[in-house]
Hints:
10-stranded mixed β-sheet, disordered N terminus
Amino acid sequence: MGHVRSAKRAAAAGTAAAVLVTGAAFGLAPAASAGTADAAPSAASTAAAGIRFVDIVGDGGTVLKANVVTPAGADATRRHPLVVLPTSWSMPQIEYLAQARKLADAGYVVVSYNSRGFWQSGGNIEVAGPPDIADASKVIDWALAHTPADPERIGMAGVSYGAGISLLAAANDERVKAVVAMSGWADLIDSIYSGRTQHLQAAAMLGGTGLLTGRPSPELQQVLKDFLASDLDQEDEMIAWGAKRSPAFQVDRINANGTAVMLGNAWGDTIFPPNQYASFYEKLTGPKRLELRPGDHATAEATGLLGLPNDTWTNAHRWFDHHLKGVDNGIDREQPVQLRSRTGGGYEGYASWTSVGADERRIPLTDTQGVRANVDSGANGGVLMLSNLLDQFLKLPPTASIPLLPRSYAAVWQSERYGSVQRVRGTAKLHTTVTSTASSGTLVAYLYDVGPLGLGKLVSNAPFTFHDKTPGRPFAVDLELFSTSYDVPAGHRLALVVDTVDPLYIEHNPSGARLTFSSPPSDPSYVSVPLREE
Length: 534
């Protein structure tokens, strides 16, 4: 567990620094929220844009620190649409101030509040549990009683933690007519426990920053302890805990309420991968929109938080303008799925997520290969937040020299060289047969774009863990890699690499274990690559 603790400390320190820098950028400290709902706002804040810092009593009497931004000249003679913004994980209540001002200038009442358990808000961190959802309704109640907000025109939005809370609130409060959920989750377990594998760096970052900036509840502390310790005896309880906090398990309520839902995420989100958002999107029956862009967790929206031009926030405003103000801005007539490739180019519109990868190309994995476990071959998914940020801005994804990967620790299959550009869109899928010398184990699959010199650029990856298998007995594995949009140049090839260790994940390979990958004639192995229909 030593490596878990060190990773946790490093991730926590880095994110905490980012939180404090963001606060400094706005020129406000968390202590600025010390006012109460009935306190007179300062002259400076009033002059700025109708901003005041207030206390709102949430569920069970817990005090939530909040700020309210109202349109210039707003009074009791006219009602304005309301947008409620719960803060992201570990972020102070000033997080959305730049966007709140923009919304207020456009005629919205905006209430942003620090989620319970963080910074100066009361209570404990419940990870979007029932108290958090009740808090959202209490904030709406407060806004309707203390601001010129219109009870018939209420929206919620947020980044990351705020996105999850907003979706869950929409499922439980029919007053919420529109939601914009950016870099959030629909299925919490499928996000950080996909392939039955603990996403180590993601969980360590969340746990570490929660300790630094808030007060994790005893339940959260126990769940995180069991998660990082790989306690399979608690697996069912952990999954049930996550399901209670997952909008995907309450999608019928959102559909029944008719909520207009816009989802935004990044292809390389290492905390909430895009697969679970796309699956959730397909289950929505009301007005909906899905936007996926290059980047990592919350990086696609980050510049907007500083008030800079940002596509995600621009479309968030358009979404609210149409669904809360009735503005005919055309967003309802655009293709509802909007994608930008990691390798460049403009937006591509699709009628549905299932139409994104309309064509399919299979790469057969014909020859049998075996690998020894417990050693990182050099193929890996990079570093949480950093690697995909470099891909977003510099087009520098994680790389590996495919010819130099040690074949004792990495299985490698390659396609032929392609004569034309291969526009990968959607979710690649691996099907293979595995034989292990141990009952438990972990494998990680990587799809690489390989150039003429053998340098592979990571296209996608995903982990898979198995337990309770009979040693020496083959079993089938079906694994969805993380969804992506990537153009493979003509003259390049695709390579599938499988090894057993990646710093992003906790691995479950006993010392000395060996995995063999085969392709029985009755059940051939392959990787299915989705391609844009030309």
